[in-house]
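Section 5.1 Outputs to date
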Amino acid sequence: MMGLLHNFHFVRPLGLALIPIAIAVWWYWQRQIDPLRGWRQQIDHDLLEALVDDRDTKRDPMRYAMVAAWIVAAIAIAGPTWKLEPNPFAEDAPPLMIVLKASESMLQSPPSPSRMERAQLKINDLAKARKGDPLGLLAYSGSAHLVLPPTQDTAVIGEMAAEISPDVMPVPGDRLDLAIAAAGGLLREQGSGGSLLVVADTADIDPSEVAQAHRSVGSPPTEFLALTDPDSAETQSLRDVAAAIGGSVESLSIEDDDIQQILSFAQRRAAAGVSGESNRWQEAGYWLTPLLALFVAVSFRRQKSSQPKE
């Protein structure tokens, strides 16, 4: 209850300015329809009160129905609210952006036949496992390039990943910071939450630079799929970067254990970024509509007119 009172406010508070205007118009209207208006200008007030019995008219609550309707309408226009609208993305699967490294080191082995081919196979398996759930793809080396934004046609992601190689990248290098900034920026722009999956063999970059880029896009949940041996220095470099941004590293597996772990991470961490409520307030002014209709109906009731005493 205290939470409701704390959150209660009006979406359009300027609408409340219509209340004094409505009262003023009602007061002026009542003076204009007063059948004794002419007599009041000619006869002393006390004498007129003695001659006319209009007590029933003054006590009739129906004469106030119209102004009550106007006040209720002004409150409805102001948009009273105390809770947020449900988030339309809350029940949808959050998008997952794959950030695929495509530098020369990805052509090496182990694992065989090459790190790039193993990465492409894993991405294809992931695309099948996330069929119908938004999946995107970004490739990077010395520069970062969006291949496909999150799409529910995940089969296309597997096909496009198979076409990526170091040969198609314009700038050699390892700019994971640019890739994180581009992929995270895309998720932030779409505003539907989501997480990142970095598929790489190593990270030849200062972890602080990646951390700075990661913070600049709102620190999206990030997981790494390491293509090299878990005990290698290459995988350790990925762990260093993951530690700098609060991410985790998943090792490549022969079975689909890594895929299941990635799916679980994406669902669990990214869903936390999309709450069950949006940032829009849910107006409750329409609940006043029945009351407004009742006041309007009552206001059409024929009012009693004041008659001079016989």
